[in-house]
Amino acid sequence: MYVDDYLGSARSVDEGLKEAFLVRKTLADADLHFQDWISNSEEFVRGMQGEKRTNSPDVPLIDDGNKKVLGVVWTTRDDTLGFRVDNMRDEENTRVSLTSKVATVFDPLGLAAPLIVKAKVRLRELGVKGLRWSDPADETDRVWWESWFAIMRELIHVSIERCLFPEETGIVNSQLHVFGDASEMAYATIVYIRNTYSSVQVIIRLVKASSKLAPKKTLSVPKLELNAALLSSRVAAAIQGCITHPVHQRFFWTDSSTVRNWIRATASFYQIFVSNRIGEIQTLTETGEWRFVPGRLNPADAATRSAIGEEVWPKIWQDGPEFLLKPESDWPTDLPWLDATAELKHTKQYHIQAATDPFDWSEFCLNETNISSFLKLDGPALKFVKQCQMEAFSDDIYREKLYAPLPIC
After folding, report:
1. Within-domain flag for 263
2. Radius of gyration over alpha carbons of the chain, in Å?
3. Strands 171-182, 159-161: parallel, antiparallel or unpaired by DSSP?
4. Are both 205 and 318 inside the same structural domain?
5. Is residue 202 within a helix (H) or strand (E), and if so which, with residue range?
6. Most buried of 19, 118, 286, 383 (most Cβ within 10 A)?
7. Are 316 and 300 spatial neighbours (Cβ–Cβ below 8 Å)?
8. Maximum alpha-carbon separation in the chain
9. pTM here?
């Protein structure tokens, strides 16, 4: 339920009609009446509304009543999802108006990340330049935004398959493939479902993507890649909690060998930033589920670039990498595991050598001839005092050395 709209899915028309009749009756008993039904099945629509049909092929799943483009567009004739982008041109080009235009693209599944991330990075740069909310952008920025608006209007031609498990009864294996990537500007993840059928056919479906800007505080690329891996783990867990079809295997792909080695290691060996993230990743995933993928074959790379390239909507982003259509033996070769020494905790080691022979106290002599040396802790007297302390307070001396503060370099 979304406000006063109900969204459901069924494996057959009969199952869908049964669910719809039940929902309609239950809500009608509370004096809540549905006004219309929309479906990719004409048979379902006839069953619910007689001969009444929906005339528009493009129906927003969410509509605010003013016909504004705030929801995902559902093309019922071919059962695909898409985008509707209207009035993207901005005559003012102020920071607040540009932010407003970027926010009008309602993208709950994150599928438009290759374009939205670029705009978010540019908006941050306007703030770094000191541009106030009401100040117009300079000529260079204005040209960039005009180019971005023109590209965004091309989103109306993008269509993404809605059904994740077509011909579900014929599926023999379903895999979740999660790709993560990071750059100095942003990090992102994208998830695909790989269905293998009894006929050996393989179908790839785009499920969801998520992206975040890199923090302003400078982080190393391996740390940003670790953030992307953590985002991949969280998104995969959320997806598995939503879908009802069983997922037989999961694969998490990263193009950072350092991250793979971190995930395999013991989290407590590393510094806090790395340790906390490794611990959560190891909780949500298994180390054997992580594999290496070359950067050129990583579709998440499309959402981490800050510059507008020639390929506005990469095919690999929508369809996934081509190797997923091949047998697993033809997938990219995984790299061997290695020990990751980066970001290890700093430790201070102490080597205490035990005395092989007991100290000979027969030489000790205290009288009026040497008492002044003991009072001054001078000469041979100092050796006897230290030995006495070592034998009487050995545990305290050991703890003092063990927890001594590290030198500041």
Report:
1. yes
2. 32
3. unpaired
4. yes
5. strand 202-213
6. 118
7. no
8. 123
9. 0.77
Question: Is 285 in the same domain as 374?
Answer: no
| Residue-level length of the chain | 409
Residue 155 counted as domain residue: no
Please list the residues that pair with 270 across neighbouring strands: 344
Here the tokens at position 60 are 């927003």
CA distance 286 to 264: 9
Q: How far apart are CA 188 and CA 178, in angstroms?
A: 10
- What 3-state class would DSSP assign to 176? strand
Range of the domain at 296: 168-330
Do 227 and 326 lie in one domain? The reply is: yes
Domain end position, chosen among 305, 330, 355: 330
**Low-confidence residues in the chain, pLDDT < 50:** 51-54, 62-70, 350, 352, 355, 409
Instruction: Please answer whether residues 338 and 150 qualify as being in contact, where contact means their C-beta atoms are separated by less than 8 angstroms.
Output: no
End position of a domain, from candidates 303, 330, 357: 330
In this predicted structure, what is the pLDDT of residue 198? Answer: 93
Using the structure block, give the residue that is written with the tokens 């997806």.
Answer: 239
Residue 5 lies in a domain: no
Token readout for 367 is 């009288």
Q: What pLDDT is attached to residue 399?
A: 67
82 domain-assigned = no
For residue 379, give every residue at least 6 positions away whose Cβ sits within 8 Å of its Cβ, in sequence order, or none: 373
In this structure, the number of other CB atoms found within 10 A of the CB of residue 199 comes to 9
Quote the crossing angle between the two packed helices 113-128 and 95-103, to the nearest 10°: 160
One-letter amino acid for residue 157 of the chain = H
Q: Judge if 237 and 309 occupy the same domain.
A: yes
